[in-house]
Amino acid sequence: MTALKSMSPKSKRLLSRRALDELGTLQAFVRELAVDRNAALRNFMASRNATTLVAQREFWLEFSWADQEYRAAVRKLAQFCRHHKALALDPWKALPLP
Fold this sequence. Notes:
mainly alpha
């Protein structure tokens, strides 16, 4: 809520229904991946004292994969937000999303 207060009135524009749907989908995907990433991290941390080096490596690889997917989803969400912020500030200069 404080982020909205700090934005200029020019940048406070409503998103279209399609954009809101896309935003909701991106947010839900990031949350889902965060759950998987956190579980993989907990497994890896627990494995440090309880498993063999080979098993630790497997847990590390699982966490690395989940972390990479999570970071990609966060980047995509940030790109969406930057794009729509640019549209709010100057609709003629906004670059299209890839």
